[in-house]
Amino acid sequence: MKLNRMNPSVSVIMAAYNCAPYINQAINSVLSQTWSDLEIIVVDDGSTDGSSDILEQLSREDNRIRVFHQTNSGRPSIARNSALKHARGRYICFLDADDFYENGRIELLLHELIKHQDWVAVFHDMKLLEEDGLTLVRTYLSDSNFVNNAAPWISHIGGVWFECRENFYHFMSLKYAAIHTSTILIDSDKFCLSQILFNENFSICEDTDLWIRLGMAGKLGYCDMTLSNYRQHPTSITQRQSLLLRETARFHEFNYTRLQQHLSNAELSTYRIKISNAWLYLGYDLFCQLNSMNDARIAYLQGFLWHPSIKIFTAFLKTFIPKFVIRYYQANN
């Protein structure tokens, strides 16, 4: 294939921060794709571990790699947005600097997206790997029985391909997002740039917000194959558990308001229960920390406002139990 150096057809967006042990594998998984008319736009988000030097060396070896440096923003979404503003390709995909693609991934998705002119994007399943990048934990969608769970919102159109119905964003709101940054390919000609930028008001769930916006804009295609690999770092989620739960609840409150005119009364009721549970989980997490009882009460009250229940009310009352009693109970159970 003759490469179009000025206007590559595909732009791969990569945010990089302190990823020196993994960046070579990530970038090589793109450069070795069967579809070579592409560019990799890497925004180095203030790395301090030598990642910057590795990226500069790689860009000298292959001019399809374009590297930009910025001071640390603390959020991958900000780095991704910076990279998106430099993208020249019509088709946009993402890859985190510690993850990697399966070979043939881009070509397979691209051909199907071009074939279905009414699709705005396509996505697929991915493998969840241990930090070593070798040990398979599970897959993102097939292990959660996605095809069956999403049956009311998707249609099998042959082989490994499914078409998501116009209301698939209902599924992503009421159930789970289904899409991950490394599993999507977007036709950017169907959007203006602002429509595919991540919402920087969210420190978590900004990706879910984008996938729902894409689903509201047009049809999506789903390929029932694992075509990318996500490296799990065991401590990253537990260290940010309260933030994750709080931002999840806050996002779904925002999304509920956005979709209020699009969901049925039954769906709105289901969504209120989901939001209530999100606040309940946060309240419980804060309660277990013992030093955040007032915040736990606030979270429980938020959950109660979304969907009153005896369970939440009882949990709220427990926050008034003396801490020494709770500690004694935790130590003996």
Write a structural description.
The protein has 333 residues and is of the alpha/beta class. It has two domains: 227 residues, Spore Coat Polysaccharide Biosynthesis Protein SpsA, Chain A (Alpha-Beta Complex); 92 residues, no CATH class. Helix content is 43%, strand content 20%. The protein has 13 helices and eleven strands. Strands 1, 2, 3, 4, 5, 6, 7, 8, 9, 10 and 11 form an eleven-stranded mixed beta sheet that branches. Helix 1 links the parallel strand 1 and strand 2. Helix 9 runs antiparallel to helix 10. The longest helix has 25 residues. It is globular and about 65 Å long. It starts with 9 loop residues before the first strand and ends with a helix. The N terminus is likely disordered.
Write a concise synopsis of the structure shown.
The chain has 333 residues and is of the alpha/beta class. 43% of the residues lie in helices and 20% in strands.
Which features does this protein show?
333 residues, 11 strands, 13 helices, Spore Coat Polysaccharide Biosynthesis Protein SpsA, Chain A, 2 domains, disordered N terminus, globular
Strand proportion: 15-25%
Helix percentage range: 40-55%
Element-level helix/strand string: EHEHEHEEHEEHEEHEHEHHHHHH
- Gross morphology: globular
Total count of domains: 2
Distance between the termini: 64 Å
Biggest β-sheet description: 11 strands, mixed
CATH superfamily of the largest domain: Spore Coat Polysaccharide Biosynthesis Protein SpsA, Chain A
CATH class of the largest domain: Alpha Beta
How many extended strands?
A: 11
CATH architecture classification of the largest domain: Alpha-Beta Complex
Please tally the helical runs, counting DSSP H or I stretches of 4 or more residues: 13
CATH topology call of the largest domain: Spore Coat Polysaccharide Biosynthesis Protein SpsA, Chain A
